[in-house]
Amino acid sequence: MKVILLSHTDNPEKIVAAAAKLCYSEVGVGELMDNLEKEEAGKFVDMLLNELGHESPVEHANFTFAIEGVSRSFLAQITRHRIASYSVQSQRYVKLENFQFVIPPSIENDRNAKKLFLDSMRNEAESYLKLTKLLSEKYSEELISSGISEKKAGRLSEKMAIENARFVLPNACETKMIVTMNARSLLNFFRQRCCNRAQWEIREAAERMLKLVYNLAPSIFRNAGPPCLSGQCPEGKMSCGKMVEVRKHYEELKGN
Ligand SMILES: Cc1cc2nc3c(=O)[nH]c(=O)nc-3n(C[C@H](O)[C@H](O)[C@H](O)COP(=O)(O)OP(=O)(O)OC[C@H]3O[C@@H](n4cnc5c(N)ncnc54)[C@H](O)[C@@H]3O)c2cc1C
Predict the structure, then answer these.
(1) pLDDT one-digit tens code per residue, 197-253
(2) How confident is the model at residue 24 (pLDDT cuts 50, 70, 90)?
(3) Measured distance CA(192)–CA(219) in Å, rounded
(4) At what angle do helices 183-193 and 200-214 cross, to 10 degrees?
(5) Which residue's CA is the closest to the ligand 1 atom numbered 2?
(6) Could you tell me if 40 and 135 lie in one domain?
(7) 125 and 144, same domain (yes or no)
(8) Same domain, 180 and 139
(9) Are residues 77 and 130 in the same domain?
(10) Separation of CA 75 and ligand 1 centre (Å)
(11) Does the CB atom of residue 198 touch ligand 1 within 6 A?
(12) Burial class (CB in 10 A: 0-12, 13-18, 19+), 85
């Protein structure tokens, strides 16, 4: 898995502090910004967010990530987070000649399970290519007989073929995406997906994303992570019971 921070709001805490101060200020934005030192902005945001729980101003800080080498299962999970923008490699437009796949660690570490898994990937890759060829020929004939040129029919038929052949591709199939979230949405994402209850793949991505943004806005992300970092675990009987280890892990991750 590869997670890269592509871009972010400059001086995120200063923008958030200015936005929050503006609500109660008689002076203009320019003057507010000029008078805000970075350190003071951080302290103000800490009080605003972590003491008063006023979350909406942090929506002004945006972060854009590139995420590669993750499964389509991951895609299904991350895109449930609606307060975000996504661009995802298309299986309709990109022919996966030799598709890559993600192997869950527990399968990777079990010889028999891994063999079964790899056989399954091989079969699915073969079916995908066979179906693409079969459908492509069929669509091409149909298009040519409807009066479309051979060259255009070739191009169109392949696109029509891969968008249907992809139905045999597995959840393990690798994908890549660009994701933009504002800090409020990221905090919600980290709360849910850094928790041990989340699946290993999205948890790993969430941790990497948190590591990438933490130092850019330490006051915004001070309590970022699973809910047990700043209070009781809300999972009841489903709790992992590892609050002490989890807290230590996030202290290390944030470099404290
Ligand atoms: C451990 C775990 C297990 C899960 N298991 C399942 C499962 O089995 N089945 C399943 O379907 N999902 C499952 N989910 C997904 C989960 O239900 C959420 O859909 C997902 O985590 C996105 O959360 P969200 O809605 O808070 O995020 P976002 O969509 O980013 O929304 C952020 C916040 O905005 C507000 N909001 C957004 N849209 C609306 C709206 N339409 N109306 C009102 N308020 C809104 C809410 O306050 C919400 O918390 C699971 C998630 C986790 C972490």
Answers:
(1) 999 999 999 999 999 999 999 999 999 999 999 999 999 999 999 999 999 999 999
(2) confident
(3) 19
(4) 140
(5) 198
(6) no
(7) yes
(8) no
(9) no
(10) 14
(11) yes
(12) exposed
- Please give the number of the atom of ligand 1 that sits closest to the Cα of 82: 29
pLDDT at 25: 85
Distance CA 255, CA 126 (A): 47
- Burial letters 117-143, b for 16+ CB under 10 A, else e: beeebeebbeebbebbeebbeebbeeb
Does residue 203 line the site of ligand 1, with CB under 6 A? no
- The answer, yes or no, to whether any atom of ligand 1 lies below 6 A from the CB of 76, is no
Task: Tell me the CATH number at 216.
Answer: 3.30.1360.170
Q: Which residues are the active-site residues?
A: 193
Range of the domain at 53: 2-88+174-226
Q: Of 140, 168, 196, which residue sits at a domain end?
A: 168
Total structural domains within the chain: 2
Query: Is residue 242 one of the residues assigned to a domain?
Result: no
182 lines ligand 1 (CB under 6 A): no
- Indicate which residue's Cα is closest to atom 49 of ligand 1: 188
